[in-house]
Amino acid sequence: MVRSISRKRPWLAALLAAILTGFGHLYLRRWRRALGWLAASFLVSALFVDPAAVEKLMAGTVNAETMLAMAPMTVVAGLSVVDAYLLARVQNAAARPTTTADADADAVSAATADEDAIDCPHCGNELDPELEFCHWCTKAVDVDAEGDGLEEPDDR
């Protein structure tokens, strides 16, 4: 069974990760990675952040000393935001696989099609060679028998 990968918005993944560590990864459906970032956040908080600084932050007294004490947790949260953003971009790139050979072939066929194209003498847009009128401006256009040029239509 083929599993399709939906395109996700990288900025939304980053925003959700900034709101709460791991939310961006939940949006991307990366469950284990989200739990890993959440666990890393709690682990860093428990090991490197002073509980008194957390209490001061919760009480609303924010100063430079409190912010410096909360720096390890802020770094982990920032790395989670960057990881969610980059992961969404990589996932989007995987959702639309193209090779350089395919892109080169498309460019060559587009260039060849442009050389063979016939333009409408009235509006200048490309004509469909099977039609006797321009589907853009709806004026009558006759293509000669060889199909390599235009004949001016007779006024009717």
From TrEMBL:
Origin superkingdom: Archaea
Membrane-spanning segments: 12-28, 34-54, 66-88
InterPro entries: DUF7575 (IPR055997)
Keywords for this protein: Membrane, Transmembrane, Transmembrane helix
The keyword Transmembrane helix is assigned to this record: yes
Domain DUF7575: 115-142
Pfam families for the chain: DUF7575 (PF24460)
Keyword Repeat: no
Protein name: Zinc ribbon domain-containing protein
